[in-house]
């Protein structure tokens, strides 16, 4: 559907179209490259021939008191001539409508003229799981056989899909939710029941797990240090406000902590700020080979979500649809 915009036209890409082309196979490679470009951009000087320019400020947010917030996430990726911004809302108390809603706007980088508007929900859902997969590929200690997912909402579903598709070594996925019936519903879906079990407690879910994903809207820790197997890898995906946390501060302090953006984490992540944990590296630095993947230690990838991930996802959609 083309929309008139002054003398030019731009496309509106529906949720169905995004879903039809945004495969994890394409996305995981693209997100990995995007994370690398983002971290390389800041670590090299303007004189460096290998410099890769990514201009991505930390997300700005406006709050709707007692309800949620609107986040604005712009980025320019010079190497791909991508000028993109996502607008995303998070209203955690929503019932019967999604808690996250997003649109992604893509502009022509040479003129600034709008090029396309994309439904942003699948982009947000899938690129976040793709980022966790990338971190897990680099940081997990060997091939994971047991995955624990804390939370049973939209991100739980995308992480289940992306991890099962990527890690053929997985034998069991355990899911916990603060409302146990929802964990059971999640695990009993036809396409999941062959390898997915619902657990009554977080401890039962994470005991012995190789990889743990926290995808809750909790503002206080749900994952405690004493339950985690030494050497496990944790993807901390929720708790995107400076006063919120999902992970025990003791676990944050004792693990090797990786983030998507150091600057973002130091402004937005309660898990990092409240625990005063040291941030060892950006995951993009590991991708670039400039920081070590401490696979033998307990590792946390604290994900907050970045516009660079949305932009590379939007590029896949536009390329695949020939727009
Ligand atoms: N890092 C990133 O890039 C991104 C992070 N996120 C974050 O990931 C998290 C999950 O997002 P999403 O799956 O889309 O959200 P959903 O609303 O779909 O799911 C939220 C989950 O958290 C559970 N939950 C709600 N309140 C609590 C609580 N107090 N304690 C424990 N669990 C709770 C919900 O259970 P129930 O429904 O049964 O109440 C549900 O299982 C959120 O924090 C979100 O902001 C999201 C997008 C990107
Ligand atoms: O990156 C995103 O998109 C989001 N991150 C944190 C929660 C809101 C959406």
Short overview:
One of its GO terms (molecular function) is thiomorpholine-carboxylate dehydrogenase activity. With 323 residues, the chain is α/β, with parallel strands linked by helices. The strands form two sheets. Strands 1, 2, 3, 4, 5, 6, 7 and 8 form an eight-stranded mixed beta sheet that branches.
Please describe the structure with a list of short key phrases separated by commas or semicolons:
323 residues, alpha/beta, ornithine cyclodeaminase, domain 1, Rossmann fold, 2 domains, 8-stranded mixed sheet, 8-stranded parallel sheet, 16 strands, 35% helix, 26% strand, globular, binds NADPH dihydro-nicotinamide-adenine-dinucleotide phosphate, binds the ligand O=C(O)C1=NCCCC1, thiomorpholine-carboxylate dehydrogenase activity
Number of domains: 2
How many strands in all?
A: 16
Task: Note poorly predicted spans.
Answer: none
According to CATH, the homologous superfamily of the largest domain is: NAD(P)-binding Rossmann-like Domain
Inertia-based shape = globular
Question: Ligands bound here?
Answer: NADPH dihydro-nicotinamide-adenine-dinucleotide phosphate, the ligand O=C(O)C1=NCCCC1
- Tell me the radius of gyration: 19 Å
Oligomer designation: single chain
Q: How is the biggest beta sheet arranged? A: 8 strands, mixed
SS summary, helix count: 11
In CATH, the topology of the largest domain is named Rossmann fold
- Percent range for β-strand residues: 25-35%
The computed structural class is alpha/beta
CATH class of the largest domain: Alpha Beta
Mean pLDDT: 95
**Helix residue percentage:** 25-40%
Order of helices and strands: EEHHEEEEEEHEHEHEHEEHEHHEHEH
Which architecture name of the largest domain does CATH use? 3-Layer(aba) Sandwich
How far apart the termini lie comes to 11 Å
EC number: 1.5.1.1, 1.5.1.25
GO cellular component, one term: cytoplasm
GO molecular function, one term: pyrroline-2-carboxylate reductase activity
Organism: Elysia marginata
């Amino acid at each position: 559907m083309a929309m008139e915009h002054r003398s030019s036209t731009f496309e509106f890409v529906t949720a169905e179209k995004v879903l039809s082309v945004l495969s994890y196979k394409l996305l995981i490679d693209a997100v990995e490259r995007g994370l690398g470009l983002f971290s390389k951009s800041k670590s090299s000087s303007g004189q460096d021939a290998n410099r890769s320019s990514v201009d991505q400020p930390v997300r700005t947010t406006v709050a709707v008191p007692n309800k949620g917030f609107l986040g604005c996430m712009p980025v320019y990726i010079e190497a791909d001539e991508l000028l993109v911004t996502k607008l995303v809302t998070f209203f955690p108390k929503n019932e019967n409508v999604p808690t996250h809603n997003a649109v992604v706007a893509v502009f022509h980088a040479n003129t600034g003229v709008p090029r396309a508007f994309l439904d942003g929900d699948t982009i947000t859902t899938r690129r976040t799981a793709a980022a966790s997969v990338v971190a897990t590929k680099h940081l997990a200690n060997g091939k994971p056989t047991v995955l624990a997912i804390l939370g049973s909402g939209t991100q739980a579903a995308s992480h289940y899909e992306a991890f099962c598709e990527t890690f053929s070594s997985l034998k069991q996925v355990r899911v916990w939710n603060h409302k146990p019936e929802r964990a059971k519903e999640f695990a009993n879906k036809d396409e999941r029941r062959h390898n997915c079990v619902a657990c009554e407690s977080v401890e039962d879910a994470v005991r012995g797990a190789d990889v743990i994903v926290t995808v809750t809207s909790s503002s206080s820790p749900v994952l405690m240090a004493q339950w985690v197997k030494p050497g496990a890898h944790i993807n901390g995906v929720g708790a995107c406000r400076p006063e919120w946390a999902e992970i025990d501060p003791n676990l944050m302090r004792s693990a090797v902590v990786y983030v998507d953006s150091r600057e973002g984490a130091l402004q937005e992540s309660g898990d990092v700020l409240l625990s005063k944990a040291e941030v060892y590296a950006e995951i993009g630095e590991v991708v670039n080979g400039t920081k070590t993947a401490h696979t033998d230690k307990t590792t946390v990838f604290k994900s907050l979500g970045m516009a660079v991930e949305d932009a590379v996802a939007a590029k896949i959609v536009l390329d695949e649809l020939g727009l």
